Each structure stands twice: as C-alpha cells, then as structure tokens.
Amino acid sequence: MLVIGRAMDLLRLMRAFRAVRKIVGRTEHVSRAVLGPLILLATSVHVFVYCGMLLWGGSITVGQTQGVPPFYDLNNFNTYPSGVLTMFNILIVNDWYAIAGVFLTVSARWVVFSYFIIANLFLVCTILNVITAFFVGGTYN
Fold it and tell me: Rounded to whole angstroms, how far apart are CA atoms 92 and 108?
C-alpha cells in the first residue's frame, strides 16, 4: 500500500512540471503514429519465424551441435519462442553470420545464407528504417 501511495505522490509531482507534461503528450502522439510500423515489424518477424520453422524446425539439437560457438545453438527454430529470439538477434544485428553458422551444420549453404541475408536486409534495412522515420517524423509535427 505504501508503494501505491508513493507512486501517486510521484504522479502528482510530475503533473506540476510543464516539461513532463509535454514529454507525455509527445509520447502519446508518437506512439499512435508508430503503431502501424510496429505491427508491420511483428508481422514480418512472425513470417520469418514460421519460414525458419518450416526450413529447420527440430533439426538443431541444443548442446550437441558440433563446430559452433557455445550457446549459439540456442538460436534455433525448434519452437516459436526460440524462433522469435533468433529473429530478434537478427533484428539487432547480433552476429547473424555466427547464427547462420549453426544452420550450416544441417542445411545447404545457399539456403542458409539466402534466408539470413534476406531477413537481415528486409528487417534491418527496411523495417527498422520505417520505424525510425516514424519516430523522427512524429517529433516534428
């Protein structure tokens, strides 16, 4: 109960400052504008996860993949959540070539690199730029 009281005091204090009110108002404006691109991002990741599950679902055994760096075989498409984790790592450009190396142990080179390069180009170069443009465009209106 004490925590709720402290939170309410903090909210009252924040309302007193004009800058905080402007930040909250701008956040509401930007969040409404970026909702469409975020749905586009979620849909794109969803499609790539299901394509990865179709290609490699169940083919990577965690802890038993030879010749890959430790813990990189946790990035797989065996389940939907692990596929989302893998695509998130691709989205933030976290060693996508090392993640692709895991799949090279079970699939043809051209399939692996085609998938990961297309995912990287589409998600990182296109979708993230669209989201950034909405944030930048939303702050100047």
Answer: 25
